[in-house]
Amino acid sequence: MGEDVLDLAVTLRALRRRADLSQRELADLAGLPKSTITRIESGEIVDPRFRTVERLVRAAGTVIAVGEHIEPAPGEGLRDRADRNFPPHLDVRPVEQLTDWAAAWWAHWHRLPRRAWPLEPPEFTYDLSRTRRAQRRHREWVWQGLRLRWVGERGLRAGDVWRLVAEAPDGAPVGELRAFLRGAHPEDQPGCEAVLEGVVVARGLRGMGIGRRLVGEFAAEVERSGVGLARAVVGAGTAAAFLRRCGFREDSGRVVAMVFGRHAGWVPDGAG
Predict the structure, then answer these.
(1) What total number of domains does the chain contain?
(2) pTM of the predicted model as reported, rounded to 2 decimal places
(3) pLDDT tens, 189-229?
(4) Has residue 138 been placed in a domain?
């Protein structure tokens, strides 16, 4: 019986998180007192009526099949200093580094040495804004199901175009990389080299690592195909910094050029 009660409490919190509803909001939609939800989630009500459970499930906008397993809400089991469950719909999560705490960004604390912090960060953080929660959940959903797909053939002759797209779980494009092959520089090697034209990522999904995933797969294909050398021409700034993080290095022989590949001392890490 104890496991059944625990499962019901965990399931109700998971449904509230899925619907992004507070206890008060769910109670209003179900036409029930807020105290009923509080007592179910705390385990005080051990055997609620079927009609009560049905109203709560429907108010959360879902249907549960017999025997269906509902994944617990992220942060399930985390408790505040009063030993209470955190509201699951707020997406509570541990503060593992200072940048996880939004207040540190607003006050620019993340740029200060620890001894200069005005106060210690909390153990957990959460999002009060429903808009921010929706954005965070969308980013997590995209990242967890992200797929990379080559479009068309990847020829090995000068002038051939390579196109790689990143797709969300529903197939919507969220990023793209384009490159083309050209005759190699006479000082390097005979044959072709790949030239990275650009990498774009959808607004709202930048900074997650999608661009690095695209460049990682491009780098792996450069190695697999035998091309072995890739170049990119960029100006100083964020584009150059991004390519450095992806394994490029400055080509000292050319202005604003960056290069990677086995002929430039690059060792692929099998990314992608």
Answers:
(1) 3
(2) 0.75
(3) 556 788 888 899 999 999 899 999 999 999 899 888 888 78
(4) no
